[in-house]
């Protein structure tokens, strides 16, 4: 199991997407709680970091994005 490395501004895919149909989230705050913004509808959600670590499926950091 690889460790999940993410930082502020990264886009992440969760195991379960947002009800709006999007599964592409931007990390807008890092702390004991993680704040995520749904890139589909702009909705903000909070979840505890430990829960986020369980729900995260993939991190798309800026360095990994290639055209
Ligand atoms: Zn959404």
In short:
The protein is 10% helix and 37% strand. It has one helix at 49-55, and strands at 11-14, 25-29, 33-38, 44-48, 56-60.
Low-confidence parts: none
Report the bound ligands by name, code or SMILES: zinc ion
**Percent of residues in beta strands:** 35-45%
Residues in helix, %: 10-25%
Question: Can you offer a commentary on this structure?
Answer:
The chain is 10% helix and 37% strand. Strands 4-3-2-1-5 form a five-stranded antiparallel beta sheet. The chain has one helix at 49-55; strands at 11-14, 25-29, 33-38, 44-48, 56-60. With 67 residues, the protein is mostly beta strands. The model has no long low-confidence stretch (mean pLDDT 89). It has one domain (11-61). The termini are far apart. It is built from one helix and five strands, in the order ββββαβ. 7% of the residues are buried. Bound molecules: zinc ion (ZN). Zinc ion binds next to loops.
Q: What topology emerges from the helices and strands here?
A:
Elements: E1 11-14, E2 25-29, E3 33-38, E4 44-48, H1 49-55, E5 56-60
Antiparallel strand pairs: 1-2, 1-5, 2-3, 3-4
The chain binds zinc ion.
């Amino acid at each position: 199991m690889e460790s999940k490395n993410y930082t502020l501004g990264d886009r992440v895919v969760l195991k379960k997407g947002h009800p709006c149909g999007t599964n592409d989230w931007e990390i807008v705050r890092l702390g004991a709680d993680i704040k995520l913004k749904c890139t589909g509808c702009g909705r903000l959600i909070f979840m505890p970091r430990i829960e986020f670590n369980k729900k995260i499926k993939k991190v798309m950091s800026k360095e990994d994005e290639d055209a």
